[in-house]
Amino acid sequence: MGDFDQEWRQSRSGAGDEPVHMRLNGTGVPAGPFAPGGSGTFGSTPTEKYAAANTIENELEDRTKTATEHADESTNTAVKGFDGWDTAAGLKKLSDTWDKQVKVLMGRLGSEKIALRGAYGLVVRNDIGLGDQFRPIGQSQLHRSRGNGC
User: Fold this and answer.
1) CA distances from 29 to 23, 25, 59, 67, 102 (A)
2) 127 burial via Cβ count (<10 Å: 0-12, 13-18, 19+)
3) Per-residue pLDDT tens for 37-53?
4) Does the structure show a pLDDT above 80 at 65?
5) Helix or strand run (H / E) with residue 33
6) What's CA 71's distance to the chain center, in Å?
7) Of 46, 53, 34, which Cα lies nearest the Cα of 126?
8) What are the residues whose beta carbons fall under 8 Å from the beta carbon of 18, sequence distance 6 or more?
9) Which pLDDT score, from 0 to 100, does residue 126 have?
10) What distance lies between CA 67 and its chain's CA centroid?
C-alpha cells in the first residue's frame, strides 16, 4: 500500500498527530524561466525576435506555400482521375478544407511575424527612450544656479 493510502487512513481515523503533506507528481513540462530551477532568463533578445520574424517570412511562409501548391496539384490530378466517382467529390471536399486550413495557417504565420517585428521595435524604442531620459540635456537647474553665483 502506498504512502497516500497510509496517510489517508491515519487522517480519517484520527490516529497520528503528524501533519499530512501534499505531494505533486511532476507534470512533465520543463520549468519556465522564473520557476524554481529555471534558467532565470526570459524570452529572447530583440535580435532573436527579428531573426524569428525573418525565418517565418523567408522559410516557413515560402515552404508552406510551395507544399500547398504541390498538394493542390496532386489532389487536382487525383480528382480528374476519379472523375464521375464519389471519390472525386470527396477529394475535392478534402482539397477545399485543406485550402481553408492553409489560409488560416498563413494568416497565423503572418500575424506572428508582425507581432515579433512589433515586439522588436517596441523593445528597441523603449531602450532608446529610456537612454534618452538618462542622458543629460544641457545643464540641470541646480548646475545653472550654481554657475550664477547662487
Assistant:
1) 17, 11, 28, 32, 29
2) exposed
3) 555 555 578 888 888 89
4) yes
5) none
6) 28
7) 46
8) 10
9) 75
10) 24
